Amino acid sequence: MIYQHLSIYLSIYLSIYLSIYLSIYSGELASHIPTETMFELFDPQKNYSSAKLTYTWDLGNGEVIQGTEPVVRYHYSTSGNYTLRLKVADVTKYAPAITGVYSMDVQVLDAIKHIELRGPSDYEVSQNASLAVHVDGSPPMWVCCRFLPNCAPDPMGGCTLTMLYENTLRLNHTFTSTGVHCLDISVRNDISKLQSSFSIYVRRSSE
Fold first, then answer.
1. Domains in the chain and their CATH numbers?
2. Residues 184, 32, 30: CA angle, nearest 5 degrees
3. The pTM is what?
4. How far apart are CA 74 and CA 56, in angstroms?
5. How far apart, in whole angstroms, are the C-alpha atoms of residue 158 and residue 110?
6. Which CDD domains does the entry link to (predicted)?
């Protein structure tokens, strides 16, 4: 099984006194994807090599996991912002103690799963057409779209790039020729990308 990863690092440097530096990677995760989070103790002088630690992981969604291993495996089923908290307890009572509570902010996003063109599949030539594209995924999203007459490839490869802060993109376009046209759409957010193409029939004006 493939996991997405987060790490919490605790670096310990011993000189005249003990200084503890906590470096946390705050990132973005995909919902419904197995996640592995690891607590790593960097102790180059091996002062805590025989320490016995216990770990209490509060995922921020009401779920709490306890154990003696510095690794926890879980997944978030709902997108949103969470605070992941880890409580480390030293049962061997080393001095100075490394017991503490550490936290990191996590943003969970929904991957882009589906692109849907809503509305009629045929339009009249030379009339302003309004189209709605619904995207199933977490915004913000970058949308690249282009209309291709006769569905012929565009040698320039250009597109209209739009930043989408909701799940529906509204497009206005005037078709200048009859026949079958294609609407090519590419959508991505910080964790996923999806492409799709839709066929649109353009008929002569009824006037």
1. 20-109 (2.60.40.10), 114-203 (2.60.40.1930)
2. 60
3. 0.70
4. 13
5. 27
6. PKD (cd00146)
